Amino acid sequence: MKKYSICGVVVTYNRKELLLRNINSLLNQSYPLDIVIYDNASTDGTFEYLKENRIIDLPNVTYVKSEHNLGGSGGFYEGEKIAYEKGYDYLWLMDDDGYCVNKDTLLKLIENINEKKTILNSLVICDTEKMLPTFNIGGCKTYEEIKTQSEGGAILGVGNPYNGTLVPRECFDEIGFTDQRFFIYGDEYDFAARSKKAGYYWKTIIDSVYYHPVNRNVLKEFSLFGHKFDVKDQPIWKWYLETRNSTYNSITHNNNRLIAYFWLRVLVVSLFSKDKKLKRLLYGFLAVNDAFNNNFNRPIMFKS
User: Fold this and answer.
1) Cα separations in angstroms, 222 against 16, 247, 255
2) CB of 203 within 8 A of CB of 156?
3) What is the pTM of this model?
4) DSSP per-residue letters across 193-236
């Protein structure tokens, strides 16, 4: 097996206990790797906690703390840039609230590096006993379906970005880093879409198991006029960002410029939200307008 230089890139913000679990799972991997931790200006004592647990001074760990919270997208942009400039063959991207389920999680990905222009992803689960997938992957909702539909131990053509995602450095040469303008939401979709446009093929390796919890903030889901909608329990500023970024992605990558659909989505979701319906409606319309005008410069001053 060819020896590759690997760097795990972990972005964190105020999740010091979960971050430590993640880092320990990386340090326990059977395939050696270095680690870059990009701290988005945490205020919960993350640095001191890592220092106390003897992580900071490890020779294969680089810890960088931002002066400001750049969001997940800004964190991945900076973390990727740091790791890329160190010259690694592959970057292994992940959030702070996930972790490698076993010590061979990375090795199973490495064993499948046999094609150029391929991005490999771990199988992301939310239950280590029942092996329940966290996300719908390739149309599969259960592990049994995943095994049935897999080919050569992989679900082909799909992956769950930033959850154990192994990216060759050549990909960054071609498409650049994560788009830091997103702040949160949609940056992973954009990165995957840009990589696919550049000819990169995604595979989810089912023996490379990575844990990530399920998002629990969905209040209700329903269909209307053939479209699926979900109403989430989230503050206005997050609603704005998710609406702007998902609209931008739909326009940019799916060539969907039917503005009536986006107005409908904003109207329906705002009306079914549990509070601040008019304010959500206003910022939803602002978000759609900003997406169509490629405006990522609106200050996030409405965190309520």
Assistant:
1) 36, 19, 24
2) yes
3) 0.93
4) HHHHHTT-EEEEEEEEEEE-PPP--EEEEEEETTEEEEEE---H
Which residues are bridge partners to 93 per DSSP?
Answer: 9, 165
The letter for the amino acid at 8 is G
Residues 39, 12 contacting (CB under 8 angstroms):
yes
Q: What is the pLDDT of residues 81-140, one digit of tens each?
A: 999 999 999 999 999 999 999 999 999 999 999 988 999 999 999 999 899 999 888 888
Q: What angle separates helix 236-254 from helix 259-272, to the nearest 10 degrees?
A: 160
Side-chain half-sphere CA neighbours of 112 within 13 A: 28
The count of residues in the chain is 304
- Read off the pLDDT of residues 255-270 as tens digits, 9 standing for 90 and up: 887 888 888 888 888 8
Distance CA 96, CA 231 (A): 25
